[in-house]
Design brief:
- It contains 18 helices and 28 strands.
- With 710 residues, it is α+β, with helices and mostly antiparallel strands.
- The strands form five sheets. Strands 1, 2, 3, 4, 5 and 6 form a six-stranded mixed β-sheet that branches.
- Helix 14 packs across helix 15.
């Protein structure tokens, strides 16, 4: 029951179309099989041949199917017409029951019915229906099964139809399987059809099918890959239902529908979603690319690697260039390359030139990769793991090649296809804007960090008075902090400063450098009065208008008196209070000279306070990253810091500062900056200390403000 070849013409479009002219329809007039043609979304009846009229009587033309065949309105045939019109896939129904108003009265007949998508002469889509009466060969039991089968097929939709034994699940009959797979009935009946199923999908399919035979659910649905005539694999969705008679299962009936396009689209959406989720919380380009490899493996491939490229414009295709592997993900059981992550090796300029213009896509016999476009290290490993295909794609940012993505499939798994290459390219396009943003953020962060580190100079060296500074950027935040510290000698005194700028970007880092330098200048100008230096800084910042925001700072002047006792004169501008750790473990926050943040009210008065600094005592200045947690009050973090410092009162100062960075529970989303000073436990050699201070600063020795009694 195929369409006569004289009615078929190829027209432009995917796969061609079956186009029927008005003249060609007349070919069906003498055919002894009922033929009808419906057109458009409402399935308007436009043609019936003589055999159709003889079977069903006259039917009005140019009427929608429910009106032309009103007696079939509830049968489900309209649903099948919709399905064929929508999917463009033909449908065949064997032994289909039809209860209709025939000329001699209402009765039930059985037909083999085919529905085929066609295009009419004016280009409108239509459906060609053919019906062959097989009632005479259908006995009572077959009629019952046919009715149940038809009802099931109408529910599930059809491309390939089949029936199976209720005892062992072996296939007894199929229509369409041979056309799709090339297997003959002798080859696919029983369980021979499994030979056309992808080897990796067989175990799960056999398990699901055997459980259904044992447990008899109301319906079964499973998706698996089938090797079609051209040797490629496509995804099919099998739907099956048991056919019962008197409560007993007498057969299984079902369909297999090609869902490759739907499967690919769903996979695409799932991959994009997973990629977005994977990179959502990364803070570095390297981490983002490594997360991407975990999305690709094992869904698309067995291995995936990312290599940073050192050069993007090779001088010669024969010149070697260095790449560095920054990410590698392998499916379970696959051997690792001998080179670990971070390995740098040479590739030819031809490789870089190739991926700058288009992806590399190589398919080859398992374990025999090409040697012309891949590095020797890659060739050796691909041979070892039995690779059968490789794809290498460029990763670009702002038009420049920054890395390459290598994807590998091994063993009997289906090699990477052009569709896979396109999907991978789309996946990279999907994250490209994020990649560009991260790359720009990292460039900004590197510039700001370089600026920060350039300002964090080594503290001065004073005999018997160690000074230690530490800075650690946030390990989890992509932002650049505005923390800073400073230590210098002026007029025979050590000046310690620390501060924090509101904001986390390059602008904040630049503002930090300006404030740090201005504070040093004001402190050098008037070293006896820390509060005056902060007041002048506040006024300068406000008047300049270059920095719109707030900042905190502490400025402390530390110097010995004539008796060799050390004193600290300090002023605080909205910053966390300095911590004094005494040699016996007692601690005290210095809170007597605490004033407004910088940038709030430049006219507000500022205060200072003087505290003794006993031998062996530690003065610690720090930023909020060391103590603040969003989930707890600030006092909790300050108490924790005091307890930790008390336990380390006699720890060497450099170790003291290192342990603060490594042992305290920090939030991880802010930078940590600290600077500490500790006079020696034994009385210092005052002349030696003064000579050192004078050599590093101004030789004059102004007196300290009036000191309180100890």
């Amino acid at each position: 029951m195929s369409v006569p070849k004289s009615t078929k013409t190829n027209t432009p479009g995917v796969g061609g179309e079956t186009r029927i002219t008005d003249t060609a329809l007349k070919v069906f007039d003498p055919v002894p099989v009922g033929v009808a043609v419906t057109r458009g979304p409402d399935h308007r009846l436009v043609y019936v041949n003589a055999a159709q009229r003889a079977m069903f009587g006259p039917r009005p033309l140019d009427k929608p199917f429910p009106l032309a065949f009103h007696d079939l309105a509830e049968s489900g045939y309209a649903l099948l017409l919709d399905r064929v019109m929508t999917t463009g896939e033909p449908t065949f129904l064997p032994d289909a029951p039809v209860t209709v108003d025939f000329p001699e009265g209402r009765r039930e007949r059985y037909f083999n019915i085919s529905f085929s998508p066609v295009v009419l002469e004016d280009g409108e889509p239509a459906v060609l229906s053919m019906m062959l009466d097989v009632t005479d060969r259908i006995d009572a039991e077959q009629r019952e099964r046919a009715f149940q089968r038809y009802a099931s097929l109408v529910r599930t939709g059809v491309v390939v139809e089949w029936t199976a034994s209720p005892v062992d699940g072996s296939i007894q009959w199929s229509h369409g399987w041979e056309g799709i797979t090339g297997q003959s009935p002798e080859e696919y009946l029983g369980y021979g059809w499994l030979d056309a199923v992808a080897p990796e999908d067989r175990p799960a399919l056999v398990l699901v099918w055997s459980q259904a035979i044992d447990q008899v659910p109301d319906s079964l649905e499973h998706t698996f890959r089938v090797r079609v005539r051209d040797g490629t694999y496509r995804h099919f969705r099998a739907r099956a239902v048991p056919v019962r008679k008197d409560g007993k299962v007498v057969e299984w009936t079902g369909t297999c529908a090609d869902v490759e396009q739907q499967w690919r689209e769903q996979r695409r959406l799932d991959l994009f979603r997973r990629a977005s989720e994977a990179i959502a919380h990364t803070t570095r380009v390297e981490d983002m690319l490594e997360a991407l490899t975990h999305v690709i493996v094992p869904e698309l491939a067995d291995a995936c690697a990312v290599h940073l490229t050192a050069e993007t414009e090779p001088r010669s295709v024969r010149s070697p260039f260095i790449v560095e592997r920054i990410a590698l993900t392998l499916r379970e059981g696959l051997s690792h390359p001998t080179q670990p992550r971070g390995t740098r090796f040479a590739v030819h300029g031809a490789f870089l030139q190739a991926i700058q213009h288009h992806p590399i896509h190589e398919v080859f016999p398992a374990g025999k990769p090409p040697t012309d476009s891949l590095s020797p290290e890659s060739v050796r490993w691909l041979s070892e793991v039995g690779a059968n295909s490789v794809v290498v794609l460029p990763l670009t940012s702002e038009g420049k090649l920054i890395a390459s993505l290598s994807v590998v499939v091994c063993g009997e798994r289906e090699p990477l296809t052009q569709d896979d290459v396109d999907l991978l390219a789309d996946l990279l396009d999907h994250i490209r804007s994020t990649l560009d943003t991260f790359a720009e953020l990292q460039r900004t962060q590197r510039a700001a960090l370089a600026l920060q580190h350039s300002l964090l100079s080594e503290p001065p060296t004073i005999p018997g008075v160690p000074i230690v500074g530490r800075y650690r950027s946030s390990p989890t935040s992509a932002e650049v902090g505005g923390d800073w510290y400073d230590a210098f000698v002026v007029d025979g005194a050590v000046m310690l400063a620390i501060g924090d700028i509101a904001g986390h970007d390059l602008a904040a880092a630049i503002a930090m450098s300006q404030l740090r330098n201005m504070l040093r200048a004001f402190a050098v100008d008037r070293p006896q009065h820390p509060q005056e230096a902060l007041r002048r800084l506040d006024n300068a910042v406000t008047r300049s208008g270059e920095y719109q925001g707030t900042a905190t700072s502490v400025l402390a002047r530390i110097a010995p008196d004539d008796a060799g006792r050390w004193w600290v004169d300090y002023s605080v501008a909205g910053h966390l209070p300095p911590l004094l750790v005494l040699p016996d473990g007692d601690t005290r926050f210095l809170e007597e000279a605490h004033d407004l943040l910088l940038g709030l009210d430049p006219g507000a008065p500022r205060s200072s306070a003087v505290e003794p600094l006993p031998p062996g005592a530690t003065l610690l200045l720090y930023t909020d990253g060391l103590v603040e947690h969003a989930s707890e009050p600030l006092d909790t973090g300050l108490d924790r810091l005091a307890r930790h410092c008390a336990a380390m009162a006699d720890t060497p100062l450099d170790r003291f500062c290192d342990r603060l960075l490594t042992e305290l529970p920090v939030a991880g989303n802010d930078d940590i900056t600290l600077i500490a000073l500790r006079p020696a436990a034994s009385p210092p050699d005052l002349p030696s200390v003064r000579r050192s201070l004078s050599a590093q600063g101004n030789s004059s020795w102004p007196p300290l403000p009036t000191q309180p009694d100890e």
